[in-house]
Backbone:
């Protein structure tokens, strides 16, 4: 079974780029904002969610704060332009397992997703929360 990845970003170019990057290996779902992300989470139960912090309406941190109810098994990677320790700490406190800053290295992101999926299956230690390029 192919793992599902939910990409949540208000920038269409980012969603499109990530969908192209990941689409050969995963079932890619996209949401343009927080409200759509929560609906998609509840319906699809993806294994991994790539979540932007700054979006109109519900922010990524807002989505993360309520994600546990909609999809408790979904692992969250914050993917954001905010290289700020306070945002990273808050995201990790709310349950994100990784914080990757934009612009991101494509190979690193693919490796990070593979590592997270291995960790979910018990094959690898999931803890590695911060990465900037």
Residues:
């Amino acid at each position: 079974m192919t793992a599902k990845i939910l990409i949540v970003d208000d920038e269409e170019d980012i969603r499109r780029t990530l969908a192209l990057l990941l689409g050969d290996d995963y079932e890619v779902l996209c949401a343009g904002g927080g409200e759509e992300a929560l609906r998609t989470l509840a319906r699809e139960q993806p294994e991994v969610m790539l979540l932007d912090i700054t979006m109109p309406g519900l922010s990524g941190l807002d989505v993360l704060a309520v994600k546990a109810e909609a999809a408790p098994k979904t692992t969250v990677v914050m993917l954001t332009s905010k290289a700020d320790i306070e945002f990273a700490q808050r995201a990790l406190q709310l349950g994100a397992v990784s914080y990757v800053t934009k612009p991101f290295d494509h190979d690193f992101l693919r490796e990070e997703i593979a590592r997270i999926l291995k960790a979910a299956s018990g094959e690898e230690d999931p803890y590695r929360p911060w990465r900037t390029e």
